[in-house]
Amino acid sequence: MQIARHLFASVFISAMIAALLSLLPALERPDRHDTDVTAFHPFKERVVTEETLVDFLSNFRETDEIRTVDLEGEVLSIRVDFKDSATDRQVYDKVLSLIRHSLVHTENVSTVRLRVHVAAGEDWMVEARREDLKQDPQMKNAKELPSQKYMERMFQVKPVGFGP
Fold it and tell me: What is the pTM of this model?
């Protein structure tokens, strides 16, 4: 009976330690309650090639909007199409997330060109270069600007005409 109690206690304590360890990333960033936090990140290649492009994009959560992707040297070109139901905030949040994923989490992508088609609005594009990140290398947005303002401040955003 004593062995069963010790076994139960050690399993219970181990489970509690694991649960507490999974909370550490959330405790490091208490100001960001609106984003998902992963406790353990799998190791991934940081160099994007034509062969690893699909794997690279599959690590990105919102891939439904991505229509075309091209990697020429260090320039990653992406075309995204958003439905009528997408709000401006959702569009800018997802585009900013794509830029962050492409520039911060890779070593060989120096420029990201995103062409954005919004069914209910004006088409636009953004060109983001790694050298634009001098003020905020990890794109943490410490001033907590809305995604649209952050992109307009950090990168070249301009209207463009192209069809679906």
Answer: 0.68
